[in-house]
Amino acid sequence: MKYFVMLCDGMADEPTEMLGGKTPMMVAKKPMIDELASKGEVGLVKTVQDGMKPGSDVANLAVLGYNSADCYTGRSPLEAASIGIDLKDTDVTFRCNLVTLSDEDNYEDKHMVDYCGGDISTDEARQLIECLQANLGCDEFRFYPGVAYRHCLVWDKGNPHPGELTPPHDIPGRVIGDYIPKGEDIDKLYDMMKKSYDLLKDHPVNKKRIAEGKRPANSAWFWGEGTKPQLANFMGKTGLKGSMISAVDLLKGIAICADMTSVDVDGATGYIDTDFEGKRKAAIEEFKRGQDFVYVHVEAPDECGHRGEAENKVKAIELIDQKILAPVISFLRDYDDFKVLICPDHPTPLDIRTHTSNPVPFVIYDSTAEKHSGVDTVNEETAKSTGVYIEKGYTLLDYFIG
Fold first, then answer.
1. 343-361: burial string, b at 16+ Cβ within 10 Å, e else
2. Which of 124, 126, 164, 342 has the fewest beta carbons under 10 Å from its own?
3. Which of 207, 208, 215 is nearest to 115 (CA)?
4. 154, 132 contact by CB (below 8 A)
5. Which helix (DSSP H) or strand (DSSP E) does residue 45 occupy?
6. In whole angstroms, what is the distance from residue 25 CA to residue 34 CA?
């Protein structure tokens, strides 16, 4: 038996006037997802535990069968593992976004124009992070380049509670003064954020981007703090040899910390321009080489939700169905008995452009035991109508495998 998870990040939504009072899952043409829904089990699962922030970290951990209350130490340590940072027990890590801020004189008066620095490339971003390390790095603080706008700051702090930090994707278009770091011993972080603006606004990379009509990545923004993570070995927990296919450091880091295989795909970006076919090929190759469990994570629906791009979010779902799910299912039908789990990690509603903790739809299909849940398509409403509800998201994996 082979197990395939298609994780569509942020796919769930709320009805929006942008789509005539419907959600992207209702509008998208997704014949393979709906075929599996008509022959499988459809329901809702609560992937974000009460008391946890609705992030891709705790939600994906839940889908992989990890109880965040037992193992979660923060988002950035998982990303640090992907980058290859060897953390000390005294280190506190932070996600370091390269963002675009507006140009008001006072830092507190600036607006969050773009949480991802105008879709800055990995090569451009590396030059900016190297500039920050050269000017702000020291024995206490170390900057590490990651992918696109996502990077890492390590603070040899000792105290694991750095204060109150806000994810930049939660405040698009807002004045940042109400969201700057707050708490004891936090002034150093805020001081570096202000200094980063002075260092980056006139950096050659940003001058070139502005000349090309692109947004500059003109400030660092720190959030997602945490300490060295500890995850149970995935194979020891499930008995399955697992592989992770994702463009983002967070998912790669989860895989590394769980001793899963993390697969890199050239052209995988985390946006709607990602190499969908490359992810499909990678998934099939992982099954061919003997892996029992393959988890394909696609970030594109989430990014479109954060940007309020309704048509692109619909398109992202359709591309996942067409270019990844359909060909992988076709391969598995000729290759082995298999089970498929399709779900988002959390909703990213277009109207509010950030994550929520609401339960998300899921489909479980078993090629050896087809069934009918009474629905022929899956979306937020049909999933609710079946009455199937898994309250503890971290139990979904055992339910899927078992």
1. bbbbbbbbebbbbbbbbbb
2. 164
3. 215
4. no
5. strand 41-45
6. 10
Tell me which residue has tokens 């569509």: 8
**Architecture of the 2-71+230-401 domain:** 3-Layer(aba) Sandwich (3.40)
Residues in contact with 355: Cβ distance below 8 Å, sequence separation at least 6, in sequence order: 10, 54, 55, 56, 170, 346, 347, 348
Does residue 159 carry a pLDDT above 80? Answer: no
Where helices occur in 116-268 by DSSP H, the ranges are 122-136, 187-200, 204-211, 234-238, 249-257
Q: What is the DSSP letter of 324?
A: I
CA distances for 300 relative to 247, 364, 373, angstroms: 10, 22, 28
Closest by CA position to 55, among listed 344, 379, 293: 344
Distances in Å between the Cα of 325 and the Cα atoms of 5, 301, 320 are: 10, 15, 6
Other beta carbons within 10 Å of 215:
17
Helix (H) or strand (E) holding 341: strand 338-343
- At 278-336, the pLDDT tens digits run 999 999 999 999 999 999 999 999 999 999 999 999 999 999 999 999 999 999 999 99
Q: Three-state SS for 93?
A: strand
Q: Is the pLDDT of residue 186 over 90?
A: no
Quote the tokens at residue 235.
């194979």
For the chain, what are the domain ranges?
A: 2-71+230-401, 81-226
C-alpha torsion angle, residues 46, 49, 52, 58 (rounded to 10): -70
Nearest to 96 by CA among 125, 121, 62: 125
**Does residue 60 have a pLDDT over 70?**
yes
Contact assessment for residue 351 and residue 31, using Cβ atoms and an 8 Å cutoff:
no
